[in-house]
Amino acid sequence: MRNCLLLLVLVICLFSCKKLDQEADPEFIQKQTLVDTVTTADKDENGCLDGAGYFWSSLNKECIKIYESAITLYPQNNQNNEDETKNAYIVFSENGGNEVEVFLPNQVKSIILIRSAEGQPWQFDEWRLVPWKGFILKKEDKILFSGDGKDRTKSHRK
């Protein structure tokens, strides 16, 4: 009798588990797996989607797509460069033009440059951003990047 009761409980448990599996929509499971994968893949420590071209702006405290919202500076030795990963990008602070954030190729962290007055270069350590026929980015006295200063989405502040 005891064995029959145990067998009956096992059979009931087995069928109830099978019913739960049958009720789950396979399409829903597939979509949920995709959502979980997309929301966790390629995110940096600030939640920006690296794989989609977003970078964290320390200056503006938000994720930005620099290829669309920043001013492009091209390598001095290759002004016709079409490889976006070899360019430098500058983003101005939202609250005025005395601070600028510089994104350099192959560097994870950006650099924030500050200027003392309008018309003066932005500086930090050996880096200088000079407003001249657009912008020139120098390290010490060597020009590394330059560009015409055309912002693709909004006017920049000189």
Report on this model:
With 158 residues, this protein is α+β, with helices and mostly antiparallel strands. The chain has 3 helices and 10 strands; from the N terminus they run ααββαββββββββ. It has helices spanning 2-23, 26-40, 66-69, and strands at residues 54-57, 62-65, 71-75, 88-92, 99-103, 111-114, 122-124, 127-131, 135-139, 142-147. The strands form 2 sheets. An 8-stranded antiparallel β-sheet has the order 6-5-4-3-10-9-8-7. It is elongated, with a radius of gyration of 27 Å. The relative contact order is 0.11.
Compressed to H and E, one letter per element, the order equals HHEEHEEEEEEEE
Share of residues in strands: 25-35%
Distance from first to last alpha carbon = 91 Å
Helical segment count: 3
Number of DSSP-assigned strands: 10
* Unreliably modeled segments: 152-158
Query: Fraction of residues in helices?
Result: 25-40%
Can you list the strand order of the major beta sheet?
6-5-4-3-10-9-8-7
The class by helix and strand makeup works out as alpha+beta
Largest sheet: 8 strands, antiparallel
Q: Roughly how many Å is the radius of gyration?
A: 27 Å
Q: How would you name the oligomeric state of the polypeptide chains in this document?
A: single chain
The average pLDDT is: 79
The backbone outline, from C-alpha atoms, is: elongated
Structural descriptors:
alpha+beta; elongated; 158 residues; two-stranded antiparallel sheet; single chain; disordered C terminus
Write the layout of secondary structure elements.
Elements (H helix, E strand, L loop, with lengths): L1 H22 L2 H15 L13 E4 L4 E4 H4 L1 E5 L12 E5 L6 E5 L7 E4 L7 E3 L2 E5 L3 E5 L2 E6 L11
